[in-house]
């Protein structure tokens, strides 16, 4: 039994530059923000028109079981003295003094992003309308609230010849990593539950909302800006699924 029983180190496709560097910055900021169960390692790497990053998916193998003492593999019967590892602390993406880690021009940077000014005559206890507040939406682990900000699609670089890696991906504990399918000759697509670190303490509001970069571009990823459209795939309990 090895470290692959507790987590899995992979290479993720983070973004593409085909739609321009601005779009890639937003895609990268979005993906690198989901740190609850993904630990990102090193720096973004460019290969052609794509950006990649090594990451550790903190999802154990579904066959890893608690033992007495230690742990055992229910598939092969192996045992070890160490118990299943708990989640590492999520990497922060927001810091004191309105400082945030985002992606600019393909690099992870920390920037001061001041809060947007309050509207004239705005009531102090009402800073905008968010229809997701109190919504009964839930992710596949039945945790309620802000489901859109707590699960995501990832692309794991893995060719058909990398059979061991593909088997390890397929063996992860569901629903924290599930719905694995081959999306290209070079990669697997999967769904993960890994909450975004830009969520505020209430677990619903986004701390990047309304903030802008120094060049005037929104700091919040553009794919998080619009509400779902009719025909989109909704989480159970989504207020837009009507």
Main sheet attributes: strand count, strand direction, barrel closure: 3 strands, antiparallel
Termini gap: 48 Å
**Structural class determined from secondary elements:** mainly beta
Q: Please tell me what the overall shape is.
A: globular
> How many helices does DSSP assign?
2
Question: How many domain regions?
Answer: 1
> What share of residues is helical?
under 10%
- Please provide the ordered H/E string of secondary-structure elements: EHEEEEEEEEEHEE
Q: How much of the sequence is in beta strands?
A: 25-35%
Number of strands: 12
Integer average pLDDT: 91
Radius of gyration: 19 Å
List the uncertain runs: none
Main sheet: strand order: 1-3-2
Walk me through this protein's architecture:
With 242 residues, this protein is mainly beta. It has one domain. The protein is built from two helices and twelve strands; from the N terminus they run E-H-E-E-E-E-E-E-E-E-E-H-E-E. The strands form four sheets. It has a three-stranded antiparallel beta sheet with strand order 1-3-2. A three-stranded antiparallel beta sheet has the order 4-5-6, with no helix packed on it.
What are the main properties of this structure?
242 residues, mainly beta, 3-stranded antiparallel beta sheet, 2 helices, 12 strands, 8% helix, 29% strand, globular
Itemize the secondary structure elements and their pairings.
Blueprint: E1 8-16, H1 21-32, E2 38-47, E3 50-57, E4 64-66, E5 71-73, E6 79-80, E7 94-95, E8 99-104, E9 107-112, E10 151-157, H2 163-170, E11 177-184, E12 187-193
Give a brief rundown of this model:
By secondary structure, this protein is mainly beta.
